Amino acid sequence: MSPEIFSLLFESLGETLYMVAVSMICASILGIPLGILLVVTEKGEILACPAINKPLAFIINMIRSIPFIILMVAIIPFTRFLVHTSIGTTAAIVPLTIAAIPYIARMVETSIREIPSGLIEAAESMGATPMQIIRKVLLPEALPSILESLTVVIVSLVGASAMAGTIGGGGLGDLAIRYGYQRFQADVMIATIIVLVIVVQLIQFIGNYLSRKADKR
C-alpha cells in the first residue's frame, strides 16, 4: 500500500474510534438507567409501575426490531435536525446511539435479573429505600455482568460503524468501500479487515479484564 493509503487507514481508524466512543458514552448514559427502570418498575418490584414498564418495554423492543441500515436512513431528518448534516462521522453517531440504547437497556436488565432476590429482600428488611437498593445492591452486584454486556455492545458498534461508512458515515467502512471495493484494491480491504479484527480483540480483552476486576466474589 502507498503512504497515502496508510495515512487514510489511520485517519479512518480515528474516525471509527470517535464514532464508537461518543455513541457508546451517549447510549450508556441513557441505556443503563432505562435497563434499571425496566427491572424496578415491573410488577412486584421495588418501584412497581406497569404504566411506565409496559410502554417502555414496547418502545425498546420496537427500536430493537429495526435493522440498523434502515434506521440510519429512516432518521435522516432527525439526524440533520440535531447535527445539521446527514453525512460524516458526527452524523453517524446519532443512529449508532439510538441503535445502541435499547440493546444496553435489555442487557442491563438481564444482568440485574441475575441478582438473587434474597439480597434485595435483605436490603428491604433493613429499611433501605428503593434508591439505596439500586445504588448499593443492584448496581454493585450486577457490575461485572454489565461490563461484559457493554463490551458486547461496543463490539457491535464497531461493526455498525463500518456499515455506516457505506452511506457516507466515514471511518473504516467508508475506506473499505471507496478503495477496497469501488477501486478493486484488495490490499486495502484486507488491511481494513485486519485493523477491525485487532480493534475488536483489544476491546474484548479490556472488557473481560475490567469485568474480572469488578467481580469481588
TrEMBL record:
GO terms for cellular component: plasma membrane. The keyword Transmembrane helix applies. It holds the Pfam family BPD_transp_1. Keywords: Cell membrane, Membrane, Transmembrane, Transmembrane helix, Transport. It is a multi-pass membrane protein. It is found in: Cell membrane. The chain crosses the membrane at residues 17-40, 56-76, 82-105, 145-168, 188-210. Its main location: membrane. Residues 13-207 form the ABC transmembrane type-1 domain. GO terms for biological process: D-methionine transmembrane transport. Belongs to the binding-protein-dependent transport system permease family. CysTW subfamily. NCBIfam families: PRK10782.1 (NF008049). This is D-methionine transport system permease protein. The lineage of its organism: Bacteria, Bacillati, Bacillota, Negativicutes, Veillonellales.
